[in-house]
Backbone:
């Protein structure tokens, strides 16, 4: 049954349904740290390794899609680890932005800060109604974005007024709001979320398949401005050749 | 007119924690003396506890842009010191929410000044919003990225920036460039309401907001930074 959380193992797992891969994030607030990024990458390896897969859905379990960076963990690490985290994060975003199949973030709940960034790196977003906020609270917690993050975000948003409200003033949005400003493509009840996500991806796929190689090249090209910004940072360069 | 008399035409008042800068100088055109007066007012506001800034004109004009007559009387040296570009940079990155309450005509440099604010509200039934540069045979030079970062790409940008279309309040609201419109009598209340809504319960940390604006409007900020300005071609003005 679509969206059933009880059958989902804890942590990050991949479920295959015919040509659809679902990356389940069942890790509480699904925050990003070096370990969870590694787990997501392993999951993505599994998806890429499955030649039958033509669609990737990511979704959370319970109240959270993702609440962003693991700030508690980051606060306890030294600067070297902090910098490695940022580099690995940028690598993940680039990987997701250029993923060789259509990607849909099925937003099941709260989607804050780095979680929103993660969702915006997908081709599409769909969101459940009635629960869950979308927000970039950086202004409220006095933690500005890095310039390359701001650059990436801006390129994904549809208008200056949206960028102002969302990125400068940390406005909170529900699913209906996001639909109006084209940040999500579809909204629905939680029970239909996975189905709606798959349908969105199928609409995109259409009748033709896309060569994985071609899709990656196209995504790299379209996003080349943001990607170059991320790649040129010392953080990315430091982890470039690390697994 | 003495400096004090001129400063008096750019008065600051406070409504709660919102600072209001009233431009009461005819067409509110930009010259070196008027820009000095505006900067002095902004200095005072930054020193205060104000949490938001509203700018408004008076009578029929918000601002009609650069004082071309004054400009034509300046020496080349004087013209080089004309600081509209740094003023726009300052408003663009002002460390609190800013609202332009467009009470009347808003043309050229005046429209760019309004665009540098976070929000724009406009009165109905009088006044045009317009970037007429093409009609004046001017390009945007140092303001190219300012308008790019505030005007939606596509049809709106083409009409508004490239082809210098003029807009009524209703028309410019429909483009999204102005956030809300109302009758003149309600304009300040609307601006105050927007300020209040934006500020929420506690307002914003000035330093953080300035960093965010500087990064969000990165290209425009770089383009309008001191030392990086393209010079106006005075002969063309």
Residues:
């Amino acid at each position: 049954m679509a969206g059933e959380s009880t059958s989902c193992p804890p942590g990050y797992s991949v479920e295959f349904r015919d040509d659809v891969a679902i990356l389940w994030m069942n890790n509480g607030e699904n925050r990003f740290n070096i370990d969870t990024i590694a787990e997501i990458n392993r999951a993505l390896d599994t998806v890429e390794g499955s030649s039958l897969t033509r669609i990737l859905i990511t979704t959370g379990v319970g109240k959270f899609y993702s609440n962003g960076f693991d700030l508690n963990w980051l606060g306890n690490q030294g600067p070297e680890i902090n910098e490695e985290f940022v580099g690995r994060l940028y690598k993940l975003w680039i990987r997701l932005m250029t993923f060789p199949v259509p990607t849909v973030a099925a937003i099941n709940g709260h989607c804050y800060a780095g979680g929103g960034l993660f969702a915006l790196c997908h081709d599409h977003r769909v969101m459940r109604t009635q629960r869950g906020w979308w927000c970039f609270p950086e202004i409220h917690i006095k933690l500005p974005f890095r310039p390359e993050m701001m650059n990436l975000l801006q390129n994904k948003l549809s208008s200056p007024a949206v960028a102002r409200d969302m990125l400068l003033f940390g406005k909170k949005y529900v699913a209906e709001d996001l639909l109006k400003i084209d940040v999500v493509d579809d909204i629905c009840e939680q029970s239909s979320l996975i189905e709606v996500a798959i349908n969105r991806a199928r609409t995109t796929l259409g009748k033709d398949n896309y060569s994985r190689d071609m899709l990656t090249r196209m995504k790299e090209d379209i996003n080349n401005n943001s990607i170059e910004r991320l790649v040129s940072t010392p953080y990315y360069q430091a982890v470039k050749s690390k697994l | 007119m003495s400096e004090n008399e001129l400063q008096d035409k750019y008065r600051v008042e406070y409504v709660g924690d919102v600072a209001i800068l009233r431009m009461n100088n005819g067409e509110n055109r930009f010259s070196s003396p008027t820009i000095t007066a505006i900067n002095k007012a902004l200095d005072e506001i930054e020193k205060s506890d104000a949490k938001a800034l509203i700018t408004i004109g008076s009578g029929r004009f918000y601002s009609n842009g650069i004082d071309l007559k004054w400009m034509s009387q300046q020496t080349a040296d004087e013209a080089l010191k004309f600081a509209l570009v740094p003023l726009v940079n300052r408003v663009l990155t002002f460390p609190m929410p800013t609202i332009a309450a467009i009470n009347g005509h808003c043309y050229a440099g005046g429209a760019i000044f309004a665009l540098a604010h976070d929000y724009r509200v406009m009165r109905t039934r009088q006044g045009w919003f317009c970037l007429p540069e093409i009609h004046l045979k001017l390009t945007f030079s140092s303001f190219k990225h300012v308008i790019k970062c505030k005007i939606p790409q596509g049809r709106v940008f083409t009409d508004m920036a490239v082809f210098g279309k003029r807009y009524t309040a209703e028309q410019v609201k429909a483009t999204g460039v102005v956030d809300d419109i109302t009758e003149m009598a309600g304009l300040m209340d609307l601006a105050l309401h927007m300020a209040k809504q934006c500020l929420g319960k506690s307002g914003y940390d000035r330093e953080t907001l300035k960093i965010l604006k500087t990064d969000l409007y990165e290209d425009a900020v770089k383009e309008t930074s001191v030392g990086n300005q393209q010079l106006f071609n005075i002969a063309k003005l």
In short: The radius of gyration of chain B is 17 Å.
